[in-house]
Design brief:
This protein is mainly alpha-helical and about 375 residues long. It has helices at about 1-35, 40-55, 75-90, 95-120, 130-140, 150-165, 170-175, 175-195, 230-255, 255-265, 270-275, 280-305, 315-330, 335-350, 355-370; strands at about 205, 210-215, 215, 220-225, 225-230, 305-310. It is globular and about 65 Å long.
Amino acid sequence: MNEYSAMKNTSVLALIKLIFLSLLLSIALIIFLESESRYVLLSMIITIISLLFVFLRIKATLPFNQLIFLHEPKTIPVLITLTTLCITVYFHNTPFVLLMMCTVLLYATVCLGLTIQLGFIGIVNFAAAAFFGIGGYSSVILSHYPIPSLIIILLSGLISMLFSSLLIFPVLKTRGHYAALITIATGILFKNFLEVNDSLGGSQGLQTPSIHLLGFDFNNALSLGEIDVSFYVPYILLCLSVFITTYLITQRIEKSWFGLTLDIVRTDETAASTFGIAITKWKVTAFLFGNFIIGIAGSVYASVTGFIAPNNFTFSDSLIMISIIILGGIGNMRSIIPAALIMIIVPEKLQFIQEYRFLLYALLIIGVLLFRPNGLFPRPIRNFNQ
């Protein structure tokens, strides 16, 4: 009985810490998103960078390490959910902020697929934006048929996975930089194909339909009494659901024998094959499943934006997705959302420095590669006894 009471008290204390932390994060993000003063924005960015630098240098002595509950499997999804809901409630009628949050969640979902490919088994994929676009265009084509929206989202992921199977042979036959060049060429060819294909809208793009769920049209305006609510609110809830579901599945994969096998293949293919592990089968599985997740995110992204064009799926977008993985830490799922916030929202808020923000982009990535080559929060070495 005493042990049960102690466990209950520990759970309640962890929940209180979690709610308090989510409120702090929500307040910080709201201040950053709400601020229009360049001096406030720059001072906040400098402060965050300074605190991060101090944390990384003397993290053993910081109180943050006392938050052991952050290592619990369901803590990060709950923290992200609470923070997202707080921001959604505050910006309930601010479409631009809600659209940015949708983009962050969907890009983070793409990065979960890339984590399976690059972080777990070691396959470099610079064509993420192409498979992202395949999912988006597939949802537009499938919307002409009487298929429920949720089924369209899943089918779009399957179509993206099907197209990615065309790359299996060249990717498996090459390694390192050569494999990366193949995926880069695929992304460029996909964009050129869309631009010359008039049936898919050509360079002008296509208008995308809204999502219908249980008879509810996501593009309809909402109101709660006298409070007007942006139509992006249902979309941000959908994006959050997609991300959390994908996160839990990816986390389950990492903890299972599936993830253990992927780690073994990435660490030493020779040793893995010696123990009877089929290298090709596991690489194909990880590559296809990662692109399935990317395709699902692309399908939702098409409905959120309401319009897609070849310029939405360029090589630059693939670089942003890869940069999120590198910045956060390759293979570390917990760092994807913070890295996505840095790579997507910060440049939008730094519009006042015009093109110089891309210089800051480059300096940030170079600094991470030089001083934190494994990312800001690298994935810890796996204990194969667990």
